[in-house]
Amino acid sequence: MLRLQFLHHPPHEISPLKLLLHLSVVLSAIGLLPPIHAQQPATTPTIRIVAFGDSTTATRGELKIYCHQLRDRFAESGEAVEIINAGVGGNHTELAKQRFERDVLQQAPDVVIIQFGINDSAVDVWRNPPATGPRVSLEQYEQNLAGFVEQLKSRDVHVILMTPNPLQWTDKLKQLYRKPPYDANNPDGFNVLLTKYAAAVRRIAKEQSVPLIDVDVAFREYGQEPDQSMNDLLLDGMHPNERGHRLITELLLPELSSQVKSLQRSRGN
Questions:
Q1: Is residue 5 part of a domain?
Q2: Torsion over CA: 249, 250, 251, 254 (sign)
């Protein structure tokens, strides 16, 4: 026979609600009712971001690149975000096409950041004999970038395009690239082709209706401020240093934060 034991209170002081609770607990304990579980809070889905690019995206020793900085900022805000770095040094969009399936699509991303252009536009005048045209033509570059965006959009993946950062002359770069079409006597003479590739990124972003982070403009505006130079943002005339990556992080963060929140809301969180 089941006996109920009341601690500290005689039976006439137990309310019907408390009595029912006692009975439920006891019956659950002896297997006559299913166990009572506390409701578990819903877990926030992790949003996966892939950064797809060349050496300006890739890990570079101990340098705190923008992928690292974004990871830290999202962690500080408690957001469930995973960032995958799919940057490869020396890559242009023709090489990137060969690894797009493996490094981007197979990662099942929610958001993809794309930045190419420096290697595409490069004319290898240091070769013997010197190259006379860019590694990837402007027309092919546009087709490749547009192809990446279209494939991602067809899978409902959010895309962010970034223009390549502008370059600055150094003594070493002048030794390698002082021949036409470059102009080593012009402070902006290393960007004669790169500016056209940056303009192509802007066109594609507009045509494809995807967000644009204009790193080219941001770096130039930084260099126009008093007591500042674009060289303050670059390691070697080509690659952003930590300050340059911090600027890129600040440009990306508002757009990424908005997309992360939108994706989480769409998934019921």
A1: no
A2: positive
